[in-house]
Amino acid sequence: MNSPKAKTGLILVGVLLAAVLFLAWKLCLAPSPTSAPALSAHWHRQLYGLDPDEAIRFVPSPYSPQRMKDFGRSWTGAPPQNNLGQLTYHVTIPCTLHWGMSSASGTVFSAIEYGTNFTLGDLDISQELREVPADGDVIVRIDASVDRRMKALESILSVMTAKDLIFEKKPAERDVIVARGHWQFHPLSGGRPRTNSSVHFYTATLDAQEGAGGGSGNLSQVLHRLEEITGRKVIDEVTDRPANDIDWANNYSEHHATKNEPALAQLLDNVAKQTSLEFVRTKRLIPIWFVREKAPAMPADYSKGAISSAYSPPPRLSWRRAASTFPWSCWPIAGSCHRGGFLRR
After folding, report:
1. What is the pTM of this model?
2. Pick from 5, 314, 324: nearest CA to 166
3. Separation of alpha carbons 165 and 263, rounded Å
4. CA-based diameter of the chain, in Å?
5. Neighbouring C-beta atoms of residue 146, cutoff 10 Å
6. Which residues contact 141 (CB under 8 A, 6 or more apart)?
7. Cβ(283)–Cβ(174) below 8 Å
8. pLDDT tens digits, 68-116
9. Is the link from the previous residue into 313 a cis peptide, with omega within 30 of 0?
């Protein structure tokens, strides 16, 4: 028979084992309460990140609190009422970065622009189609190929707009601007004091006050801004480039450059005087993305014995769902509302 001392030892071992099991359950299995801010941050990371197989994600409103903070920072913490704008996030290997913001509502063109960095010089798209509403934030994997991103946008925007959109890349001859020569900066005299060291984009007049914005970047980014203003592809053939980043300043008169050829010539001449570069207007065969809406098939004409296939919309994207802890990412699809949803490709 076991001695009293042995029995006491077994009891102590049992108590210690029970204590260890309880602590393990408490630490590993028992649900711990999570604060609302922590849940909010976690949900934002889920919604505004990308899965490994994703190139682009489109997140419509209502938006997360963190997204609204990102939007508010662009307005020094006090964004206008009833204005949600459109934000762009870039996904890199370590994290997701808030990259840009527009105060305007989203459209088909803005989604393409933010998803690819394309300008109208890269596209063939009608004015009507580019202005079709497509409101929501664009999350982009910037190391994904542009072709992959465009095909993803084709699917996403077809669902968003309820239109059967076709994105097709083909070579086409277009009016372009060729930038050549050797960079040498010549600041304007009589400009706004804070922007005397900037390249000004303008046609007839400089703005008396700041308000049109500006930016900073290398020469390629400056030429990209010129491409945005003119709506024409800018071919970079500059041989002697600046070593440092360049500041630029927008002026409201720059918008006249797309309205007539004399205004475009004036804009290019003004930039040439400030940079010593030559800007040549010519034609080139370049890759162009044609964005069209596929016409629905004609209804069947049984009187003539012909049966045409009925129009069918594009297949719906996979609809990702997560825990419905928060209501702000609610988006209706097919008459129902799934919290935590977003469009992805």
Report:
1. 0.72
2. 314
3. 34
4. 112
5. 16
6. 50, 54, 55, 56, 91, 149
7. yes
8. 888 888 776 666 677 788 999 998 876 778 888 888 889 999 999 999 9
9. no
